[in-house]
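Re-run with default settings, no changes from the original entry. Doing this only to confirm the output is reproducible before filing.
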Amino acid sequence: MTGSVEQGNGADRRRGESYLVSADELEAFRRDGYVHLRGVMSPAEMDSIEQVYDRFLRGEIAVEGKDFNDMTTGEHGTDPSGYAVVNVMLPRRYHPEWQGNLFERRAQSIADQLCGEGMTIDFDQLLAKSPGRPDAVFHWHQDQAYWIDTEDRRTATCWLAVDDSTLENGCMQFLPGSHREPVRPHRPLHEDRSASHTLVTDLRPGDSMVPVPIGRGDITVHNEGVLHGSGGNHSAASYRRAYIVAFRSRSTVEEERRRGFTHSHNDSVEVLGSVDGLQA
């Protein structure tokens, strides 16, 4: 499968705080714009992540304003049991004990292998598709449409499956090789970015999206230009929970912060207008 390389269950490549990326996986990332890495986190390590994750979902960890919202509508400050996609932006800000956790450290080692030296965390995010919500859709987009354009556009967005991510519950889908094309025109999903930050683009004739089901503890890693999205959660019983840590070059992150761009959904519309936007 494009973007996927058979490499066992990953246990033999977890080395403490590191994870060994193979030459074939590096080639897949460069060729396709994404790669599936198996077993980055062990079952026991996932249990520890899940405990904190669910504290966010239950509201036991306070999150400010729009940084806890329904990703499909931008709704915030209301009962999250009605949200199609619970979105928590910057969980490491709101739960500082999570900073430097094992997943962050392993993801750093992966970003360094895929992109080279000088990579640093840009932002983190939790995305939980609620059960029985076919409307929990992420429309087609490219991350670079949201971000400032710099000379160093290296990106490794590490997307960790907290649950098995399947076709039924809305796994990630990618358009292989689309990162080698110019960024496509995007538009606001709801016509008003002050209400919802989400941007979308359209598929073109001949585009063939590739679904990438992955298991709990696996990750996909994608770059800033690959076209991607995901379908709704048709499972009646379970969330589709994901934990994302995105790495970009240190110089790019410094330039973002200099412009006041933090990836918080509480950033002002004026800040949004001064850059390309926010991660969806």
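The longest helix spans residues 43-57. Residues 271-280 have pLDDT under 50 and may be disordered.
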